[in-house]
Amino acid sequence: MFSLVQTVAVLSLASRFAFAINFPFESIQLTEADVAGNPDIAFGKLPASGNGKKCKTFPGDDNWPSAERWSAFNSSLGGALVRGIPPAAACYQGPYYDEARCAVVRARQGSSRFASDDPTIPFGQWQLDNPCPVPADSAAPVYTCNFTSLPQYVVNATTAKHIQLAVNFARNNNIRLTIKNTGHDFLGRNTGGGALQVWVHPLKYFETIPSVQDGHYSGRAAKIGAGIMTYELFNEMAKSNFTVGVAGGATVSAIGGWMQGGGFSILTSRFGLMADQVLSVEIVTADGKFVHAAPDENEDLFWAIRGGGPSNYGIVTSAVIKIRDPISISSTTLNWQTSPGTSASPQVSNETFWKGVNAYFSHLVRITDAKGIGWNYIRTVPPTATTPRTFTFIGQITLNNFSAADAKAFAAPLIADLNKVGFNLSNPEPSWFPTYAQQGFRPNPDEGVSNGRFGSRLFPRKNFIDPTSKEFLAAMTAIRSFVEDGGYMWHSVDYTPTLETAGYPGRTNAVNPHLRNAIMHSTGFDFASYGPETTAAEKIASHARLNEYLNKLRAATPGSGAYMNEADPDEPNFQESFYGSNYEKLARFKKKTDPWHVFHAVTAVGSDEWEVEGTQGLTTQQGRLCRV
Ligand SMILES: Cc1cc2nc3c(=O)[nH]c(=O)nc-3n(C[C@H](O)[C@H](O)[C@H](O)COP(=O)(O)OP(=O)(O)OC[C@H]3O[C@@H](n4cnc5c(N)ncnc54)[C@H](O)[C@@H]3O)c2cc1C
Ligand SMILES: *[C@@H]1O[C@H](CO)[C@@H](O)[C@H](O)[C@H]1NC(C)=O
Ligand SMILES: *[C@@H]1O[C@H](CO)[C@@H](O)[C@H](O)[C@H]1NC(C)=O
Ligand SMILES: *[C@@H]1O[C@H](CO)[C@@H](O)[C@H](O)[C@H]1NC(C)=O
Ligand SMILES: *[C@@H]1O[C@H](CO)[C@@H](O)[C@H](O)[C@H]1NC(C)=O
Ligand SMILES: *[C@@H]1O[C@H](CO)[C@@H](O)[C@H](O)[C@H]1NC(C)=O
Ligand SMILES: *[C@@H]1O[C@H](CO)[C@@H](O)[C@H](O)[C@H]1NC(C)=O
Ligand SMILES: *[C@@H]1O[C@H](CO)[C@@H](O)[C@H](O)[C@H]1NC(C)=O
């Protein structure tokens, strides 16, 4: 890599200059001279009123670019165009058949690294209606591998110019554009059938900036490329002695979907969301321009890109973020269950189990006021002929800037409350790390890929202020019913990214206002299959049942919403739920800056004016995109 540090330190100028220093890959930009009158790659001109077409051009359409034009586009890209072939094509008869390769795909299909290192495929399969399932064994595959349902071509972006060319080519040819980073998105916002995809994963650059002083923020910063993932930032934190909150998933990108939709970490109650850390971004907009957005430049774009939803206002190439001094982390783990347990997870009766859940959550305000977070799962195993339905609670209270002794003392009143309702727990020793970097460090992580669905809900702080209030009891009753009657697994991460915590410039960004009032982000999981063996009707029925139980969580939290990055793409009234009072302003900004609707993602602002052709009930992204 290279060094920005010297340059920035010597310049020590006002923010716009310091921040406008590009990574070398960003200095390679598309110019009018490159365009040279070629209409395929010409820049867009604003203001504009769109192209008036009902549908995006789809493979096989008369006006789909010819092989010659794709080839010319590839030349302008210097050869960075890749055909969108899913790895599982190796398992199907045809030009890509390769038994050895298929065996590798079969072995690695559940790996997040396998998915993120592939230019074409997203994490899940149902989002594209399972277009190329990996056959379970070497017997003849039962399903078909349908390339049309996947992005057709991928620009393997290693320069800003590559991204500008992709945006211009897609806009000028009215082709759907998708953006893949790690491909981790749960909703399918990263993919689309027949699309031209921009793969930003290769943009792995990182530099610390020793001093930023812009009159409002004074401190260290870092400039990070779009492809940097959680675990890579932990490595940098260890190397350069700093802290920035990152996702719980080690292979999530730092400034892609995670930041652009909010971005919570175990430090969120202390420092806010990732969207709150951003001081400036470099970004390719719908007209193909490469621009800088900061508090004093392209202010509306700077506002929208921080929390107003990924994949919708431009393609981010890098961001400058606030970084902080190292901070210690301590975690207390508390588990219990109704099946035979252990001393670390004692067995309790059904009634005691749920009393324990109430006692635990009655401490949520205290935990988050101490700038800590809660993290927990309630799992259930259905009854068998010989065993009753059982329940398991797994919980962790994670504090920062506490000594181990203080963290243990902090947990004592909660342990006392649990013992009051019939537990026999001693206060466990917390695990303690001198720095967040040490707590999160994973040298070469991998994590699981799933093909399941879930829904989520933000519980506002007012549900948890008074454990005798009807709001608290409504929350507990809804959660219990979700697990006990629904038979679903329930999960929550409990944090408070208030406006006050967001600070400068975070408090003026487009983060969902419902997140600002929240104390709990809860998720309920459907373990029913959404795989290729299920019919559309089965998927609809399974989802409808999940939604019925999610409605209980919604009923207990009137006026709240959901966190868009971990949510159901079929969330009812997503506009209000994911964006709250920001929706109208974001929609006006979207219309003005992207009248061509170059950028589209399910549940993104303005996406409600579009639908995917051939959709059989639940939202998927495999078909042609058309105006409603
Ligand atoms: C294992 C795991 C753990 C997670 N943990 C957390 C957590 O702790 N906290 C949390 O808040 N969320 C968490 N998430 C959810 C996460 O925020 C979303 O999955 C998010 O969409 C991932 O973003 P990505 O860029 O890595 O993935 P992608 O699927 O590549 O992209 C997601 C979205 O962002 C867009 N996008 C990506 N890069 C860019 C770019 N450079 N410019 C413009 N648009 C872009 C894509 O088009 C897509 O719409 C987790 C997810 C997983 C799978
Ligand atoms: C683009 O060009 C490169 C280099 O010539 C070539 O390897 C690649 O296959 C081409 N891509 C497509 C989609 O044809
Ligand atoms: C993407 O481009 C880089 C740099 O040219 C190259 O090393 C890599 O192999 C390419 N990846 C794919 C999938 O084409
Ligand atoms: C890291 O930063 C902390 C806090 O600023 C400081 O106390 C410590 O000495 C630094 N460690 C190293 C190795 O620089
Ligand atoms: C605990 O509750 C579940 C569901 O409410 C029930 O099925 C189970 O039988 C109960 N267990 C016992 C031991 O009573
Ligand atoms: C951590 O606690 C110390 C006092 O114990 C305080 O001085 C410091 O500001 C705290 N750090 C943060 C980031 O809040
Ligand atoms: C509580 O647990 C301790 C061991 O952890 C045990 O010695 C004691 O008898 C238990 N008390 C009750 C009332 O079960
Ligand atoms: C492949 O997918 C496309 C887009 O969804 C669809 O139009 C086409 O019918 C599918 N082909 C087959 C053989 O299923």
TrEMBL record:
Gene3D superfamilies: 3.30.465.10
SUPFAM superfamilies with a match to the protein in the record: FAD-binding/transporter-associated domain-like
Signal peptide (from-to): 1-20
Domain of life: Eukaryota
Residues in FAD-binding PCMH-type domain copies: 147-326
Alphabetical list of Pfam families matching this protein: BBE (PF08031), FAD_binding_4 (PF01565)
Record's keyword annotation contains DNA repair: no
InterPro entries tied to this protein: BBE, FAD-bd_PCMH, FAD-bd_PCMH-like_sf, FAD-bd_PCMH_sub2, FAD-linked_Oxidoreductases_BP, Oxid_FAD_bind_N
UniProt keyword annotations, A-Z: Oxidoreductase, Signal
Keyword Secreted: no
GO molecular function terms attached to this record: FAD binding; oxidoreductase activity
Family: Belongs to the oxygen-dependent FAD-linked oxidoreductase family.
Name by which UniProt lists this protein: FAD/FMN-containing isoamyl alcohol oxidase-like protein MreA
